[in-house]
């Protein structure tokens, strides 16, 4: 092989490696309750391991993805059109890895996942994110797990976000809204109200498209058409 062909071969190998790292999802079941029951999740690694930050994400809607392991060891799960879950590769970069997990109100369940992450990456900063109906969980967790993780991210939040007092919080909090979110259960005015009353960090998005249900992912509610920009702003906030 001459030198030119060798360079081409190296370039192809590097490109293949980078592309694989952008799309890889791993099935993980090492988190468990005290009684031993496993808590499966999908891990999308950072492009450089170990990660500096891990973002634990819950989908909206019914919040159940039905995470299972295929015969080849890869994960099978639903809800891939949901804003956060669909954006897992956009949110994972050189520093950030993402975890996709069913939503749930159980604090012991989330603490078990956090403990599993910390056992593998002791120095990592952990953020918990929800979108739409799963912000019911992030609001509850931010009130009851304050100081246990680096922060909480509430995107397209339910109206009760307006009363979340973050003034004395040890963990950071971020609210993300679309100015023209038309979903009746996630009025953007509630996020603005919180920001004005408690000074919680706020990202206001505009643009994109409404092509279906205003409470679904293919709409302003799901940042459809502007997900690159929305996830970039979230990543930038995490790294501040």
Key features?
240 residues, alpha/beta, 10 strands, eight-stranded mixed sheet, single chain, Rossmann fold
What does this structure look like?
The protein is an alpha/beta fold and 240 residues long. It has a single domain (27-238), classed as Rossmann fold. Helices cover 32% and strands 19% of the residues. It is built from seven helices and ten strands. The protein has helices at 3-23, 83-86, 88-91, 107-120, 135-144, 188-198, 227-238; strands at 26-28, 41-44, 53-58, 68-69, 75-76, 96-100, 125-131, 151-155, 172-178, 201-205. The strands form two sheets. The protein has an eight-stranded mixed β-sheet with strand order 1-2-6-3-7-8-9-10, with helices on both faces. The protein is globular, with a radius of gyration of 19 Å.
Short description:
By secondary structure, the protein is α/β, with parallel strands linked by helices. The chain has one domain (27-238): 3-Layer(aba) Sandwich (Rossmann fold), CATH 3.40.50. The chain has 7 helices and 10 strands.
- Overall pLDDT level: 91
Termini gap: 47 Å
Which outline best applies?
globular
Question: In what order do the strands lie side by side in the largest sheet?
Answer: 1-2-6-3-7-8-9-10
**How many discrete structural domains?**
1
**Rg for CA atoms:** 19 Å
* CATH classification, class level: Alpha Beta
CATH homologous superfamily caption:
Alpha/Beta hydrolase fold, catalytic domain
Percentage of residues in helical conformation: 25-40%
Tell me how many strands there are. Answer: 10
